Amino acid sequence: MSSSDRTEFGEYLKRRRAAMSPPDTRGGVRASRRRVPGLRRQEVSDIAGISVEYYTRLEQGRAPRPSREILAALARAFGLSDAERDHLFRLGGEQPPEPASPASVIRPGLLRLLRGLDDTMPVTVHDGRLDLLARNRPAEELLGHLTGDGPFERNIAYQAFTTDVLPRLLGEEGADRFLRVAASELRVALSRYPGDAYLRALLAELTENSRSFRDHWEHGEVGASKSALKEMRHPTRGWARFEIEVLHDPERDHWIMLYTPRDDA
After folding, report:
1. Cβ-proximal residues to 253 (8 Å cutoff; 6+ apart), any chain
2. Which pTM was predicted?
3. pLDDT at 32 over 60
4. Which segment of the chain is annotated as a signal peptide (predicted)?
5. CATH number reported for the structural domain that contains residue 35 in this entry
6. In 41-50, which positions are buried (b, 16+ CB within 10 angstroms) versus exposed (e)?
7. Residues pairing with 205 in the sheet
8. What residues contact residue 223 under an 8 Å CB cut-off, 6+ apart?
9. In 3-state terms, what secondary structure has residue 51?
10. 123-171, pLDDT tens digit by residue?
11. Does residue 159 form part of some domain?
12. What is the pLDDT of residues 40-70, one digit of tens each?
């Protein structure tokens, strides 16, 4: 950290300390008459489990770059939100911690967006583990047969390698491209959530039961598709072309896929 970075980091700590409510005596921290708002440095250091001398140097911009463990302890002590914690980490010269798993609940506003586009385009939402979370009515019509049974019934990669619907939906070339993308995105998911039991079980299941998956997995491709032009077969309207754009909600690790119909189909 440069001297200016240490100063900005210290100022952020001061503002967070000043915004905290003083604890009462039932919390085990001595309450006393105060001349300034918020907590004393001693109280913050006690909660964070670090020395008051070190915490004082952090606030004054005189301490070296704090470790990730110290940053995590400070974030817990201040009761920071995820966004506030991430900001603290960046100020401290570290990348914010990765989430342990994607959020399981979709934002209500995003669900309203899906319904609002019912007359415009298909829209789907999947999480960072490639599980399909939601889709609007046009997407249900277009992709309704892509879900199955079992613990991985809503996983895109699992359905890609264990069902025979892709050639009918995308054609032979399109199906092969989709399998390559599915394997590469599963590798990305595993790298982001290396300890995730669900993803590990999914990998074991596909490795054991799908020769196609083993072949694609051995290629070692890594990637996350953000846009594409796809030709897809609608069950009642025949072949149609879609411009697909993918938007990301990084806080929840949700991915929104917009299927914009192309007039030149």
Report:
1. 99, 102, 103, 127, 128, 192
2. 0.74
3. no
4. none
5. 1.10.260.40
6. bebbbbbbeb
7. none
8. 181, 184, 185, 188
9. coil
10. 999 999 999 999 999 999 998 766 666 789 999 999 999 988 899 999 9
11. yes
12. 999 999 999 999 999 999 999 999 899 999 9
27 & 84 share domain: yes
**CA 86 to CA 146: how far, in whole Å?**
36
Of 251, 10, 234, 252, give the one whose Cα is nearest residue 122: 234
- Identity of the amino acid at 58: L
φ, ψ (nearest 5 deg) of residue 241: -105, 140
Domains in the chain: how many in total?
2
> Which pLDDT does position 222 carry in this prediction?
85
Beta strands in the chain (DSSP E): 123-127, 132-135, 227-234, 238-249, 254-261
Same domain, 257 and 203: yes
Q: At what angle do helices 82-91 and 3-19 cross, to 10 degrees?
A: 150
For the stretch 221-246, pLDDT in tens is 887 667 889 999 998 989 999 999 99
What pLDDT is recorded for position 144?
75
